[in-house]
Amino acid sequence: MSNNAETINNSNDWYKWVEEAISKKHIKYYEIENFSNIQEIGSGGFAKVYSANWKNSHKCYAIKSFFNINDATVKAIFREVQLQREVDFHDNVIRFYGVTTSIKENQRKEYSLVIEYAENGTLRKYLKENFENLTWNDKYNLAFQLVYAVSCLHDEGIVHPLNNVLIHRDTVKLADFGLSKRIEETSNSQSKVFGMIPYTDPKIFIRKRNRNNNQTEVYSLNKKSDV
Ligand SMILES: Nc1ncnc2c1ncn2[C@@H]1O[C@H](COP(=O)(O)OP(=O)(O)OP(=O)(O)O)[C@@H](O)[C@H]1O
């Protein structure tokens, strides 16, 4: 796989890259027909996400199907795949398993991502529904996992906007690396708002040079604890 983020400029590059990666077995291809019990579980600005069982087993996967794979979105999708694969050895990061063809009826073959399924959904929803029943130890444990995951991503040179924090049983899982950046990139793009506004360090809005961008993520973490 010779392409890097700079060489994926349009949807043709993306299709070529995925097909080459599948044929060289760098990425596993899952036949969509082998999934059963496909259920929609959520959607965001770019994609719809489904849960599905593999070959009638109890093993559940999440399938992320993009609304519109065009020249503008392929870079984010490619980034998501690249960054997630780099760090998904970590227990607190959603695993990238491979690709399948899109669930949509379409003339053109469209690839969807097959990723680990987080059974309890988003941390936000989980806390809303369970906050009263959680002990301080449970809350400490969730906060600890979140901080630990962020710290491990920093060690790998990646900043995650913490826009998508999921829960699988008692384990925090960071997902959706489409908006994540390498630390050196964030230092060069001070003017760009990074992540969700409520969790964004206000200092990012005033163009202050030489601000360490890991710090903006620490701000996001503190805001998360307000949930
Ligand atoms: N692996 C997963 N397991 C369980 N639910 C998930 C998973 N991935 C995503 N979801 C659910 O689907 C929703 C949409 O997913 P996601 O945020 O990745 O889509 P997106 O279009 O890239 O979103 P965004 O607009 O935030 O970039 C999430 O908020 C979450 O509720």
From TrEMBL:
Q: Where is the Protein kinase domain?
A: 35-227
Q: Which UniProt keywords apply?
A: ATP-binding, Kinase, Nucleotide-binding, Serine/threonine-protein kinase, Transferase
Q: Which residues bind ATP?
A: K64
MF terms from GO for this chain are: ATP binding; protein serine/threonine kinase activity
Pfam families with a match to the protein in the record: Pkinase
Q: State the source organism's domain of life.
A: Eukaryota
Listed InterPro entries? Actin_reg-Ser/Thr_kinase (IPR050940), Kinase-like_dom_sf (IPR011009), Prot_kinase_dom (IPR000719), Protein_kinase_ATP_BS (IPR017441)
Keyword Heme appears in the UniProt entry: no
Q: Please give the name of this protein.
A: Protein kinase domain-containing protein
* Native organism: Rhizophagus clarus
